[in-house]
Amino acid sequence: MRWLIAEDSLLNRSGHWFEYLSTFDRELRALGDDVTTLACRDAEPFIREQLRALPVLPDAIFHRMSDGANPLVRYSRVPVHAWRTWRTMSRWLRGQPDFDVIFVPTVLVHHLLGWQ
Description:
Elements: E1 2-6, H1 17-30, E2 34-40, H2 45-50, E3 54-57, H3 71-94, E4 101-103, H4 109-114
Parallel strand pairs: 1-2, 1-4, 2-3
């Protein structure tokens, strides 16, 4: 099977995303599946190397939730992020062969709009 894993919060080794997606990557490959992982466009080199992750996705808004911005700015990030995700994925997928499974581990309101 051909898997596409897309996680915009996959930025570095802090938090749970690296460990979580490393397990998926390792075990799916052990089954003989093909895995393509998309990470945050600013993903650290370690993430890119270890998971063969492509730094394609717009920066997650999760990392900026408590940055002190006023509520209007924070709430405006939801549709902006959705638009950026939709635009990025539409363009990227056009140049790719079909995937059997597209797995998006984090699905929040701003992701639902972008992954329509």
